[in-house]
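User: quick one - fold this with adenosine-5'-triphosphate bound?
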Amino acid sequence: MTLPTDISGLRWHHRFAMLGAAFHTRLQPTPLPEPYWVARSDATARLLGLDAQWFASDEALEALTGSRPLAGAEPLASVYSGHQFGVWAGQLGDGRAILLGETTDGLEVQLKGAGRTPYSRGGDGRAVLRSSIREFLCSEAMHGLGIPTTRALSLTGSDQRVRRETLETAAVVARVAPSFIRFGHFEHFAASGQDAELRALADYVIERYYPACRSTERFGGNAYAALLEAVSERTAALLAQWQSVGFCHGVMNTDNMSILGLTIDYGPFQFLDGFDPGHICNHSDTSGRYAFNQQPSVAYWNLHALAQALLPLIGDKETAVSALASYKRVFPSEFDRRMRAKLGLDTPPPGTAVAEAEATDRLLIDGVLSLLAAERTDWTIFWRRLSVAVQSGDMAAVTDLFIDRTGIDAWLPAYAARRAAGPAQAAGRMLQVNPKFVLRNHLGQEAIELAQNKDFSGVAILLTLLESPFDDHPGHEAMAGFPPDWASTIEISCSS
Ligand SMILES: Nc1ncnc2c1ncn2[C@@H]1O[C@H](COP(=O)(O)OP(=O)(O)OP(=O)(O)O)[C@@H](O)[C@H]1O
Ligand SMILES: [Mg+2]
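Assistant: Sure. Structure tokens for the protein plus adenosine-5'-triphosphate:
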């Protein structure tokens, strides 16, 4: 078979499309008038093997806005359902995201904000520039932090008006992932009793992304239970990363949970400024369901919804429950591993039993978390300063972060004693896990306000910093500093 090639450098095949009409509707994106570039990610372009010259061309601008067809693409919108804020929401689907297809390297390209689809449910099919800048930057920021995520290729805008609380303008994010399948895709076919489609979807996901489940001996060779276990493990590992970097997703509905354990749907997310464990970043989340410290248990709840959907394939409840149990094992151990790395602690000191060493380290971790919570100490700055202080041996910049020094003055010697007992990682390695730059709300907001006046330099600078957030980037200290007072007044809702 000859695959269509385009001067873009993209070669396509369309495996999700081949699942059949029950899974999607084929349709073209709706063009936007006079699109312009807001930002491009060269890193994602390289991942796709895009021709660099084409990527800078007007043709690419139009194709990635959905304003001209891309040779070889077979655009479609997929159907899914889901639980939103804990309540069954029924059929949802790609109401504004259109899949262009899959490259021969197995990466799917999707345009978010590319117009109405049969799943738009009264929405306009568009995304506004403001939220698209946040999605574009945070996708690449998460990748820079080493956290699994959908990637962003480009961000294009148009002066076409879009009504939200106020009149805004439209934008399109071209995003890239091995798959955009969500828990909600499975819930959709389970809830509608489409057993054959449910099985076809699970088989497709196993064959493409979890082939080891097919040959497993676990659960008596039950591939679907093995799939649930594998997804639970990936989700647990993802949540451990979110919690350790202070990332609040904001809208962890089951339709925003990736079957691959990727971070997906950058809506009302926030990186914590001060460490407030109960922080609610989504202004629309009045009950605090998706508060920062609720995220690990919400992910587990969402996995139960996935388990329920997979039940007809798994066969019995006990097997499903035991497959889910991996979450409770992986999340705490991954979280502790990440926190120990943040503290620069490696394997247990020589001569110490693993369990004993873990208990000591847990005390250190709990201790520092309660100190940070008590004073709402800045999460990112604390960890970065601690890394620098371990390197220099001068802890003054760390203790300066606390008004009441009693607690930190007691904690630091215990921490030093643990490190002296070794083996500790070099401080240099702490600097590789404790970022200097994260996409704080106020940084995004400043870039958005410039972009709304057609100055895209703020987006470009942030992209550079966030692509390598562990580097020093001299000259950009202000972007690694404390948030200004007005940052706490920014209200981010589901409106996007
Ligand atoms: N402006 C809109 N027009 C049409 N559908 C929309 C619009 N905004 C959201 N939706 C749909 O509402 C549902 C929930 O939206 P949610 O905010 O979780 O997703 P999203 O931000 O659109 O996209 P994604 O999850 O693909 O990143 C989805 O089915 C989504 O496609
Ligand atoms: Mg969504």
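One thing worth noting: Residues 92-97, 112, 119-120, 123-126, 251, 253, 255-256, 264-265, 267, 494, 496 surround adenosine-5'-triphosphate (ligand 1) (CB under 6 Å).
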